[in-house]
Amino acid sequence: MPETPMPTPAEADILAALWRLGPATVREVHDALAKDCDYNTTLTQMRLMTDKGLLLRSERFRSHVYEAAAPKNETQKRIAGDLLKRVFGGSPAGLILSALGAQPTTPEERAEIRRMLDELDGKKRRGK
After folding, report:
1. Count of alpha carbons within 13 Å of 113, Cβ hemisphere only?
2. Which of 52, 71, 86, 117 is deepest in the core (most CB within 10 A)?
């Protein structure tokens, strides 16, 4: 089975809205996006995303309900990996430093990053 395509920026916005909302109708997603675009644009985009395998559609109470086809963390890892290769030449440090420099982080976020790095170091030591 071929891998689903990488989401475009507009598609990533829709996925992010669905991750926040959970399964939702086009109207709910359109309202959550709060963008200056027409409802039909959101509808068309979500239909195309379904065709591409990025979204799943079901029918509940005579309404089409959409949800992300892949879990949030899986999609985020794919996007980060693609960005890492295309923009940062495969350098995780470059990606992380750029991300950290793009906007301020809270002490809690920095503590979580440190915890994750310590966890990765522990896994590497156990794996050797």
Report:
1. 11
2. 52
Closest CA to 65 of 13, 95, 28, 118: 28
> Residue 103 and residue 4: Cα distance in Å, rounded?
30
Query: Could you give the CA distance from residue 54 to residue 48 in angstroms, rounded to a whole number?
Result: 9
CB under 8 Å to 33, separation ≥6 — which residues?
13, 14, 17, 42
- Residue-wise pLDDT for 43-86, tens only, equals 999 999 999 999 999 987 788 999 999 999 999 999 999 999 99
Rounded to an integer, what distance in angstroms lies between the CA atom of residue 97 and that of residue 125?
24
- Alpha carbon distance 38, 31 (integer Å): 11
